[in-house]
Amino acid sequence: MDLQLTEHQSILRSTTRDLLAGDFRKEVLVAIDAGRQSGLEPWAQLVSTGILGALIPEEYGGAGTSVTDAAVVFEELGRGPVSGPHLSSGVLAALAIMEGGTPEQRQDLLPAFATGKRIVTLAITEEDYGWEPRFIQATASRHDGELVLDGTKLYVHDAGMATDLIVAALLDGGGIGLALVAADAPGVSRRPLPGFATGLYEVRFEGVRLPESALVGGGSEDGWSILERVFPKAVTLLGAYQVGGLAQVYDMSLEYSRTRRQFQQPIGRFQRVQDHVIDILNRLDEARWTTYEALWKLDTGRDAATSVHMAAAVASEAYYLGCNSAHDVHAGVGIMREYGLTLHTKMSRTLYHYLGGPRYHRKKLAQALGL
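The structure assignment produced for this chain is given below.
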């Protein structure tokens, strides 16, 4: 197993890093987080490079690259951390259409995803939060040849920027359908969820009328099986993003321990500070190598279930706890918005349960191992 980057991937990493250094400087990210600047213009600049269409086949305007190639990009985005619908639209929604969409849906939607003309996010979780079909309570009932969608989705990522949503809902036949809904359709309302989180929304659907062709797969009641085919790649790319975030947190903490002085010496000479920095490094290593093992298995066609769930559990927890240790290193300066560490602290909390938290993935790991 060779986990080193290829020459192409190294070039992709440096290209992405240079792009972010120009268009997504810390000052820009802080301004977006504080609501002083819109994220639409930076998002458009990022989409224009084509790097967010990595998983979309070339015939639909994407790059058609490997999952590992996409992970290289997502790791650099995590270093920002760059918020936006790159995972929601470029990965989750795109893979859902690739896996379950009709030929007409693929032809209509995937080129628009690749160019950013349509931004689509998945609306799955509800008040009784969970990433299993038993938690779905929203309904899409058939009336007079149409679907009528009702329900409330909570903690929907990037819904504020979305032009469309893919909504998981119970169908009359008892299955779960994935309905494509315009974000500005009558009966759809979006409300940002305040708090120590980034880009989360409540989305309400009240009597939203849709043609049956709006279902991904053209009337399919097998929507959850589509999601189950999408989740392994999406979860692992989320892990790559978290690895990038933790790598930046480690770099910030190490540099601060070298330059901040107390008692006429750098604080990095104090044992307790060293303990915190080493804790971040250890968590970074475990997150990076479990994630890249999962990527390797996905790209080589091996059974990746155990590695995907292991990586997901490790990466979410490592990013969360690594940020805690970083605040121990930085003390007071770490809570200053302008310094940039709180961007990662918020993001680590926002993503902790996304696509399933560590406890969920440990349970899935045990099942995959037959325990």
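Interim note for the steering committee: The mean pLDDT is 92. Residues 7-115 form a domain with the Butyryl-Coa Dehydrogenase, subunit A; domain 1 fold (CATH 1.10.540.10).
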